[in-house]
Specification:
Largest sheet: 11 strands, mixed
Number of helices: 12
Order of helices and strands: EHEEHEHHEHEHEHEEEHEEHEHEHEHE
Helix content: 25-40%
Radius of gyration: 21 Å
C-alpha cells in the first residue's frame, strides 16, 4: 500500500474471548459490545470459530473475511436473522442477499437445482469470487431473495469463512459488512469503523485478497448473464461455458438491475467523487486542470490515483491527500486497494475527490462499475 493503513478499534486477543453471553449493552446507550477476534489459525482457534457458528445458528450476526470483501453474516435460512442484516446496515429491503456455502451439499440447501451452466461454473471457479443465481429452495426466506424466485449462492475461497460456515451448519447470508452505500470493507478495521457497537463479533482474518465483490452470474437460462462484474471476468466465464452476456442494466440507466449493490448509490466515500477518464498521455494534464480549478474555488482536493498521476501532481496535491492504488495498468492492485483508498479520506479535511478511471475491459469492467457507482455517474473525459 502507498497510503496509511486504517486504524479502527481492533483487538488482537488470541483465543476463546467471545461467547454468546458477551452481547452486552453499554451503560446509558443502545449500542452492544463489539468484540474483534483475530483468527490466525482456524484449527488452533476452532473453539472460537465454533462459538461464532453457534451465534449465527442462534440468529445473531457475525462479520467475517472472505477473499473478496468482509461480509456481515446471518443464518441464511432464518428470516428474522436476515432481517437483522438490513436493520444494521440500513439496507433497502428489496436488495437481495447472497448465501455463502462451505461445500456443494450446502449449495443444495439453498438452490432447488444446480443448472448445467451452474455445474460448469462451479467446476471452473468454485471456491472463488463468483456467485451463481439459481432457482431457490422454498426454505430460503424472501428476506434473502428480495422477492425473487431465485437465490445467489457462492463458495468463498477463504479458510476463516469456510470454517465459520461449517460451524454454523447452514448457508450464511452475507452482504458486505458496511453501512449501506459506503465503500465495502477489506479489513477488520474498516468493518469496525462502520459497525462497531452494532454487531457483537468481528472475525479479523487480515486484508481481503481481491478487494471487489464477487462476479454474479445468472445461470437460470441457456446463456450465462453477468449481473455484476468482478474478478472472474467475462472472458474467463465465456471460456468455461462458451459465451457470457452482460446484463443490460450494467449499461442502460432505465433497466432495473437484479443483483446486490447495483440498484442504489453504492461504494461512496463521505465527500463527492468525480472520475477522470482518458488516454494516459492526457490524464496528468486533465487532472492538473481539474485540481487547480477546484483549488481556485477554495476546495481541498483529494486524489485516488496511480503512482504516475500522483508523482505528476505532487507539487499541487500533498502526499497526505493522495491515495495511490498502484502503477498505471496494475488492475489487480487497484481492485485490491480501491475501497481502502476511498475510506482513507474519511478523516481527512477534503471537500472533493478526483479518481483515475481505467479502460472497462476484463477486471477493469468491475473497477469502473464500482467507481461509477461511487461517483454517482460524475465523469470527466480527458
Amino acid at each position: 500500500m502507498d497510503f496509511p493503513q486504517g486504524t479502527g478499534t481492533e483487538k488482537h486477543d488470541e483465543c476463546r474471548i467471545f461467547r454468546q453471553g458477551d452481547e452486552t449493552r453499554r451503560e446509558g446507550g443502545g449500542f452492544m459490545k463489539t468484540t474483534i477476534l483475530r483468527i490466525r489459525d482456524v484449527t488452533a482457534q476452532a473453539a472460537d470459530i465454533e462459538a461464532a457458528g453457534e451465534l449465527l445458528r442462534a440468529g445473531g450476526l457475525v462479520a467475517f473475511p472472505t477473499e473478496t470483501v468482509y461480509g456481515l453474516g446471518a443464518n441464511g435460512l432464518e428470516a428474522s436473522a436476515c432481517a437483522g442484516i438490513y436493520q444494521v446496515k440500513g439496507r433497502p429491503s428489496d436488495n437481495p442477499l447472497i448465501l455463502h456455502a462451505a461445500d456443494r451439499s450446502m449449495v443444495e440447501m439453498a438452490a432447488r437445482v444446480v443448472t448445467p451452466l451452474g455445474e460448469k461454473l462451479l467446476a471452473a471457479f468454485a471456491p472463488g469470487p463468483i456467485t451463481l443465481i439459481l432457482p431457490k429452495r422454498p426454505e430460503v426466506p424472501e428476506s434473502v431473495t428480495g422477492g425473487f424466485d431465485t437465490v445467489g449462492v457462492r463458495l468463498p475461497d477463504n479458510d476463516v469463512a469456510r470454517a465459520l460456515i461449517r460451524a454454523a451448519g447452514v448457508p450464511v447470508a452475507a452482504p458486505s459488512a458496511n453501512l449501506s452505500g459506503r465503500p465495502s470493507p477489506t479489513t477488520a478495521a474498516a468493518v469496525a469503523a462502520d459497525l462497531s457497537g452494532r454487531v457483537p463479533l468481528i472475525l479479523d482474518g487480515g486484508p481481503c485478497r481481491f478487494g471487489l465483490e464477487s462476479t454474479i452470474v445468472d445461470c437460470t437460462g441457456d446463456r450465462a448473464v453477468i449481473l455484476r462484474p468482478g474478478a472472474i471476468t467475462r472472458d474467463m466465464i465465456a471460456a468455461a461455458v462458451g459465451s457470457a452476456d452482460l446484463d443490460p442494466a450494467l449499461s442502460t440507466p432505465n433497466v432495473p438491475p437484479r443483483a446486490p449493490g447495483m440498484k442504489y448509490v453504492h461504494y461512496a466515500p463521505k465527500v463527492p467523487l468525480t472520475l477522470i477518464m482518458g488516454e494516459k498521455a492526457r490524464l496528468a494534464a486533465a487532472f492538473r486542470r481539474e485540481v487547480e480549478k477546484r483549488q481556485a474555488a477554495g476546495k481541498a482536493v483529494g486524489l485516488v490515483v496511480s503512482e504516475e498521476i500522483a508523482a505528476a501532481l505532487e507539487d499541487i496535491v500533498p502526499p497526505p491527500l493522495t491515495a495511490i492504488y498502484g502503477a498505471q495498468g496494475d488492475l489487480f492492485a487497484m481492485a485490491a486497494h480501491l475501497y481502502e483508498a476511498l475510506r482513507y479520506f474519511d478523516d481527512k479535511a477534503v471537500d472533493v475527490l478526483l479518481s483515475e478511471g481505467v479502460v472497462p475491459e476484463g477486471l477493469g469492467l468491475a473497477i469502473m462499475n464500482r467507481l461509477q457507482k461511487a461517483s454517482g455517474g460524475r465523469c470527466i473525459e480527458a
